[in-house]
Write a structure and sequence with these properties.
With 332 residues, the chain is an alpha/beta fold. The protein has helices spanning 27-38, 50-64, 83-95, 123-145, 178-202, 226-229, 232-246, 250-253, 255-262, 289-302, 315-331, and strands at residues 18-22, 42-47, 72-77, 100-105, 149-154, 208-214, 272-275, 278-280.
Length: 332
């Protein structure tokens, strides 16, 4: 599928940029990090497993060799299933004065067995949506200060075939389905990107763009839970028949994320959904401003951010909020 897919053609340099890429130790995240690194960016590789992150950094440095104009690679620990970890990561990044201008929300889980995060949330919605939403909001004052900047959410085309029940986002009333749980989180990614764009415009903040996207069917290890949560015959068919003809390589799958992060063609676009390096239409629910606003309110409530203003022009005030949250965590 690589030959028939969209590829980012931009040659834009990112010298002086700091880019944050979650899940950058493997798969698409690794390729996104490598592309931004080659363009001169200081790439913060936000990963849960630091041993894997260090190995990924070494791999990319070896792959890049002595390429002129390469940036830096900085592994940082981040567990998206832990609000405590997200807050600590944001505090480390912002307290160093990083000039963050790109935030690629790539990490995720898919169809894992029923489980809950450290904070009591269903694992898919915690890792794929809430963790990224919290991180984006905590980093937002920095992104505003260093605008133009971009926030990119990796979603899925499955949004076109399912609907997210916003009254049961944490799957407390519904029988658990690993597929529905995964799709819920991916729909939330699209709606949150749209909601954040709406809020930025309402606060008259210019230069911070949001994007969501479908990367394609990509050959990565994200389907590692399939044997536990799906029929074996479905797993075999998915991995050996469907993917054999439809999958993209991780490098190809990374292209739409890279396009949304750097391409000049979408400099003046925000709040939209993309596939194969082009703007496209998601489901009716994902196009709904009402649904986006409702998800925003639910997300703020679940993350207990009612007293935090991510749109504050005074960045030091936002940093103080984060510091107080971290000190409160330590006290517990």
């Amino acid at each position: 599928m690589d030959y028939f897919s969209g590829w980012c053609k931009s040659e834009r340099r990112l010298d002086g940029y700091t880019a944050i890429v979650t899940g950058s130790n493997s798969g698409m995240g690794l390729e996104i990090a490598y592309d931004l690194y080659k363009r001169g960016a200081r790439v913060i590789m936000a990963c849960r497993n630091m041993e894997k992150a260090a190995a990924a950094r070494a791999e990319l440095q070896t792959r890049g060799g002595t390429q002129a104009g390469a940036g830096e690679l900085l592994p940082e620990q981040l567990d998206l299933c832990s609000a405590r970890s997200v807050r600590q990561f944001a505090r480390r990044v912002t307290s160093r004065g990083e000039r963050a201008r790109l935030h690629v929300c790539n990490a995720g889980v898919m169809m894992c067995p029923q489980s809950r995060s450290e904070d009591g949330f269903e694992t898919h919605i915690a890792a794929n949506h809430l963790g990224h939403a919290l991180l984006s909001l905590l980093l937002l004052p920095t992104l505003i200060q260093n605008a133009p900047s971009r926030i990119v959410f990796v979603s899925s085309r499955l949004n076109e075939f399912f609907k997210l029940d916003l009254d049961d986002i944490n799957l407390e009333k519904t029988r658990y389905s690993p597929l529905q749980a995964y799709v819920n989180s991916k729909i939330a990614n699209i709606l949150f990107a749209k909601a954040l764009d709406i809020k930025l415009k309402e606060h008259n903040i210019k230069g911070v763009n949001t994007y969501s996207l479908h990367p394609g069917i990509v050959k990565t290890d994200i389907g590692r839970y399939f044997p536990q949560t799906a029929w074996r015959i479905i797993t075999y068919g998915f991995q050996n028949i469907l993917l054999r003809w439809c999958w993209k390589s991780p490098r190809c799958g990374a292209q739409t994320s890279i396009y949304c992060a750097v391409d000049e063609k979408c400099d003046n676009e925000s709040g939209f959904y993309y596939s194969d390096c082009a703007k496209t239409r998601p489901s009716k629910q994902c196009r709904s401003e009402e649904e986006a606003r409702k998800l925003w309110d639910i997300t703020i409530d679940m993350l207990k951010l009612q007293d935090y203003d991510p749109f504050a022009s005074d960045t030091s005030f936002a940093l103080q909020d984060i510091k107080e949250e971290n000190e409160s965590d330590k006290a517990l």
